[in-house]
Amino acid sequence: MMHMTFYWSRKVNLLIDSWRTEDWTHYLLTLLACLMVSAFYQLIENCRIRLKLIGAGKPFPSEIQTPLLQRKLTGNGDKLGVKVAGAILFGLSSVIGYLLMLSVMSFNGGVFVAIVVGLVVGYFFFRNEGEDSILVDTSCACA
């Protein structure tokens, strides 16, 4: 029977029937996997934002500049490569995001905390480079 409230136990069934934890070692490895996958999710989102900036041809700060990728994707003026790569990154990001959501829906407190901590760590290392100020379109003159 699935839990409908948060519970704190080392016994959890995550995503598939064969992913069950019975002892502390398996439980801690599961929490580590949740943490790493959620941090990887932030890395994928960062790559997607960089690709979006490259495709738009917008200038961006040197700390998020990727000159090799920019030269390959925009050197010939063909935007198809940027769109395909963006679609692949979006699909991968969506799959990981939904799997993380389903993992949280196991209602295990440790899994929830591991995923939130992983998202925070991933955001700290991969996404706090000022993209909020970059992605705001200032060309719109609103009254």
From TrEMBL:
Annotated compartments: Membrane
- A Pfam family name for this chain? Ctr
Membrane topology is: Multi-pass membrane protein
Per the record, its GO cellular-component terms are: plasma membrane
Which parts pass through the membrane? 24-44, 80-101, 107-126
The question of whether Lyase is a record keyword is answered with no
The lineage's top-level taxon is: Eukaryota
Please list the GO terms describing molecular function: copper ion transmembrane transporter activity
Q: What are the UniProt keywords, alphabetically?
A: Copper, Copper transport, Ion transport, Membrane, Transmembrane, Transmembrane helix, Transport
The UniProt family comment states: Belongs to the copper transporter (Ctr) (TC 1.A.56) family. SLC31A subfamily.
Q: What is this protein called?
A: Copper transport protein
Originating organism: Vigna angularis var. angularis
